[in-house]
Amino acid sequence: MAEFLIGPLISTVREKASSYLLNQYKVMEGMEEQREILDRKLPAILDIIQDAEEKGVYRPGVRAWLDALKKVSYEAIDIFDEFKYEALRCEAMKKGQHRKLGMDIVSLFPAHNPIVFRYRMGKKLWKIVQTIETLVAEMNAFGFQHLQQAPLYKQWRQTDSIMPDSDKDIVSRSRGDEKTRIVKTHNEDREKALQGIQKSVRGKRFLVVLDDVWNEDADKWEKLKTCLKHGGKGSVILTTTRKAQVAQIMKMGVDESHNLGKLQKVFLKENFENRAFCLRKPNTAKLNDMVQKIVDNVQALL
């Protein structure tokens, strides 16, 4: 079950589809029917996703269904992110923020016609909705069940009522068993994830980038390293960290660590101005002072 974890993806799609920004700036005008379909279908999927993920462990057909659901969920998230960016563009235009910052709005956002944007995005959304409707029909054919389970905090709270000492002892042992089960489940999930990584890289040449690592648990790194050693010849693991201890743990016996110095303020300022002002330097003293303060703060974090 741990290898799927599609419920959070579906919840993310549902949350993004109901964002107030999309309504406020009407970036989905003309797509109300598709949104209503998602409002009905997504909760229905969430109702049975736990049962589906449990069955997907040993039923290949269900596993294929879950893979298709995961794929369309990622596609839907990307689409709703595009809607969100369009809404943010409208918000920036409405509030005149681009003018206050001295920025050219055309350089920050691609030039486009709102009608063309809605037409293009409407076609994408229609395809997503069609796929989800097909998956829901297949879901009904599988006959998944809604597994009702009280949240863990409610289960524990129910045991805190006044009771005889002997019953309290039973509850105390029950809580201990529950915590043990949670830890065991967490460890099992981690092991399955590591097995999945090992299977994915076996015999393949890969580049893995582990950016800004802070964890100093050598045991966790050893387990991950064991999985990655099954990759093909020429594979590379690139790690960045701000902690010397982490670098020491993750060097894997190869003395190829590089201590990078801080980027000088002049280069930080140049990079910031190129990104924010598209090669045009701030033309006011006030804005230049604000840029300098941002650069100072950034360097302090390095």
Explained architecture:
This protein is mostly helical and 302 residues long. The chain has 13 helices and two strands, in the order αααααααααβαβααα. The chain has helices spanning 7-17, 20-24, 32-56, 60-95, 97-100, 105-108, 114-142, 152-158, 165-201, 218-228, 244-250, 265-277, 285-301; strands at residues 207-210, 236-239. Strands 1-2 form a two-stranded parallel ribbon. Mean pLDDT is 76; it is low at 100-111, 149-168 and 170-174.
Short characterization:
With 302 residues, the protein is mainly alpha-helical. 68% of the residues lie in helices and 3% in strands.
Q: Determine the fraction of residues in helical runs and give it as a percent range.
A: 55-70%
Q: Number of DSSP strands?
A: 2
Spatial strand arrangement across the major sheet: 1-2
List the uncertain runs.
100-111, 149-168, 170-174
How would a crystallographer describe the biggest sheet? Answer: 2 strands, parallel
* Radius of gyration (Å): 26 Å
Number of DSSP helical runs: 13
The secondary-structure class comes to: mainly alpha
β-strand amount: under 5%
Which oligomerization state do the chains in this entry correspond to? single chain
Distance between the termini: 40 Å
Q: Look at the structure and give the mean pLDDT.
A: 76
Pattern of helices and strands: HHHHHHHHHEHEHHH
